[in-house]
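Researcher: Go.
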Amino acid sequence: MALLEAVEISKKFGVLRALDGVNLTVEEGQIHGLIGPNGSGKTTLLKCIAGAEQPTDGCLRFRGEDITLALPYVRSRAGLSIKFQITSVLPGLSVFDNVLLALQARDTLWDLALSRTRRRLVDRAAELLADFQLATRADAVAGTLSHGEQQWLEIAMALASEPRLLLLDEPTAGMSLEERRLTGNLLRPLADRCSIVLVEHDLDFIRDICNMLTVLDQGRVLQTGTVADIQASDKVKEVYVTRV
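Model: Structure:
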């Protein structure tokens, strides 16, 4: 059974059809990239999977359950987590407290009010920061981090819920070449913990990290396959030459 199945997903915004019968299958332990020209529907598809947008037509199944109309918090509790392109860390709090709050998100108000959870979660927060090379910045104010470090912090926060599927929208946007290289090194080991679907424009980055790729063009799936399949595709080459 596939971890995620998107079946004939369509999304209309007035007369604009952003997605038109998109099919996507994501397996356990897979890093699946979504690529395509600007306006091809990549981010809209991520939002439909996460519940930020409702598809106009089609069906979404996660771990065999129909989540097409499920609210975002229900999807989160089922094991979905998303990091959008624009960082949403809390800039006035410490790096450690940002991760701690993400870990406390599922605790009851009663436990939070009595401060029962902080001590229990300290070690887990430290592990997440270490995973993303932020252990030495734990006490720093999050707003003072570099752009790349803020992206890593938000990915660590998205992993706090121990998701089965992590959705990443352009995780290397605005990063330097060295930060992109480091981000790839940080994301590859995550496949042992969860599957990943990521939207990217950096083809070198996505080629080096993904097991499978799906190419979208004008709201439709142009092709799905391995990196080698996509690189050899004349259809994909034509789209990137004429529309990117």
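Model: The CA atoms of residues 172 and 180 lie 6 Å apart.
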